[in-house]
Amino acid sequence: MGYYREGFKEQALPKNPNIEEIAKSDVMNGLEAATNTKGTAKGKYHKTRHGFDILGLINPSKVASASRFADDLIKTLREKLA
User: Fold this and answer.
1) Exposed, middle or buried, 50 (CB in 10 Å: 0-12/13-18/19+)?
2) Which pLDDT belongs to residue 7?
3) What is the DSSP string of 49-77?
4) Could you give the 3-state DSSP secondary structure of residue 10?
5) pLDDT over 70 at 79, yes or no
6) Rg, Å, the chain Cα set
7) What is the pTM for the complete model shown?
8) Is the distance from CB of 44 to CB of 31 less than 8 angstroms?
9) Looking at residue 4, what is its pLDDT?
10) pLDDT at 40
11) Do 35 and 45 contact (CB within 8 A), yes or no?
């Protein structure tokens, strides 16, 4: 993952391709395990300390293609802004 660069343990993240079936606790535990190493310059994942920076790096099209709910949200926001 580009945000953490070195030391990020991607294998610690949940692997279910249907992201809407992954429990929030599993995502949070996976992020903590993936970053709970001295190899990451940013340190262990923290929602408020890292979340907004990471959101700024995410490709909305990839999120929309992986999540029907995210796709619906993006479409609704675009309609409201048009």
Assistant:
1) middle
2) 87
3) HHHHHHHHHS-HHHHHHH-HHHHHHHHHH
4) helix
5) yes
6) 14
7) 0.78
8) no
9) 85
10) 82
11) yes
Domain extent listing, the chain? 10-81
Decide if 45 contacts 32 (C-beta within 8 A).
yes
Residues contacting 13, CB < 8 A, separation 6+: 27, 30, 31, 34
Q: How far is CA 69 from CA 17, 29, 53, 57, 62, in A?
A: 14, 22, 22, 20, 13
Sequence-distant (6+) residues with CB within 8 A of 38 are 7
Six-digit token string for 8: 């990020």
pLDDT digits (tens, 9 = 90+) for 31-63: 999 998 777 888 889 989 999 999 999 998 999
What pLDDT does residue 3 have? 87
